[in-house]
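Researcher: Structure for this, please.
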Amino acid sequence: MNTSRSLRPAMKGMVVTDEDGRVLFCSPTRPGSCADITHARRLGLVKLLGDGPAVEIPADAGYQGLGAQTGGRLVTPPHRKFKKNALDWYEEMHERQRKAHSSRRLRVEHGIAHLKNWRAPARHLGHREHMSDAIQAVAGLLSHQQITDLASAQQM
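Model: Predicted structure, token format:
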């Protein structure tokens, strides 16, 4: 059997931002491919959100089903009830709801993109044992930068 060096396990991490895209939480990375919803459960985020303060976190479709388990704190795009032969009014309503959710998540995605734009994580492609530390450090620096920018904007 011939194994290729290019076959390396995926690295999974989770980032939570506020509605303005500021990093609130960045999990350590773990090797292996895993569904988003499973990763959230393993990290204990479902319990934390269910027992924590009443906040609303817009999430992507990978977390569908966790809204009920977190007391409605995790909000995902609307689930499509009718996939075939849907009525026109239903299609229009679903599309409006989906676009509204997507608009709310835009800043969240921008916050995650800021984290990915740092070069340190990209340099660890061959050194995955240190990637978690690099991601945590970058998240801390980014969070500090965002707090500093917010404080200076409020002083103006």
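Researcher: Any notable elements?
Model: Residues 11-155 form one domain. Confidence is low (pLDDT under 50) at residues 1-7.
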